[in-house]
Amino acid sequence: MFSAELATPVVAFHANTPDQTLSLNQIIDMQHVTLNEGGAYDSIHGIFTAPYSGVYFFATQICYSSANTFSYKIMVEENEVGHISQYNYNGFINCGSAHVVTAVKEKQRVWIKSYQTGQFNLNNNGTSFMGFLLQKTKGNVV
């Protein structure tokens, strides 16, 4: 699909999720994959594994309909690299997003995790997770 002559290999994914209910500290697994160039996103577990060390861009948008505060984090292994908290006072569909540019080492994993108490009903109208490699770095150095 893409030219093999590129200096930085093409690594990109986009996935969204069907309606689901989340609990505290749960990885949000986006099961419907619309793009997985490089095959690094695992839709069964909701985890991206970096095939190369480099600088990556990740973004997520979460839409939910529970009348409550919902908070989630973008994680690289056990390190938070981005987060957002949003409050839905009326129970209608509410969406929020987080974006991050971060260094990731080869084989490190990236995922979205809920961290607010209670259960939340995700809505598939816009709940998504995406990422891509901006620049590959040499070896395992970032």
From TrEMBL:
Residues 6-140 form the C1q domain. Gene3D superfamilies: 2.60.120.40. It is found in: Secreted. Pfam families: C1q. GO terms for cellular component: collagen trimer. The keyword Secreted applies. The keyword Heme does not apply. Keywords: Secreted. This is C1q domain-containing protein.
